[in-house]
Design goal:
Layout: E1 2-5, E2 9-11, E3 17-24, E4 32-38, E5 44-50, E6 57-59, E7 67-72, E8 77-82, E9 91-99, E10 103-107, E11 111-115
Parallel strand pairs: 2-11
Antiparallel strand pairs: 1-3, 3-8, 4-5, 4-9, 5-6, 7-8, 9-10, 9-11
Length: 117
């Protein structure tokens, strides 16, 4: 199982950023994918999840107005789009596979997003 994320991004405040996560090693639609981020010196922060089978999403309340998750079964890729970024969004963003009644078992390598003017 592999989750391979896109590379680091640098953005100005007020712009948007997209992080992608290409999945291999299992049937794409069989597991939800969660997105989690970690700001410098902070703990992990759960952003939400997507069901790759039907594109259904569940967002943490904090992010629901600014983030959109998508799943593309043709490329086995999920993505997270974050709009109106600000300095507080500087963090490493992770995708991770969710196993029911177990939690997150496989993680991407992380994508550093830096928001700075």
């Amino acid at each position: 199982v592999q989750l391979v994320q896109s590379g680091a991004e640098l953005r100005n405040p007020g712009t948007s950023v997209k992080v992608s996560c290409k999945i291999s090693g299992y049937t794409f639609i069989n597991y939800y994918i969660d997105w989690v981020r970690q700001a410098p010196g902070q703990g992990l922060e759960w952003m939400g999840r997507i069901d790759p089978e039907n594109g259904g999403t569940h967002y943490a309340q904090k992010f629901q107005d600014r983030v959109t998750f998508k799943a593309d079964a043709s490329t086995s890729t999920v993505s997270a789009d974050l709009i109106s970024v600000r300095s507080e969004d500087t963090a490493v963003y992770y995708c991770a596979r969710r196993v029911p009644a177990f939690g997150l078992d496989f993680w991407g390598q992380g994508t550093l997003v830096t928001v700075s003017s």
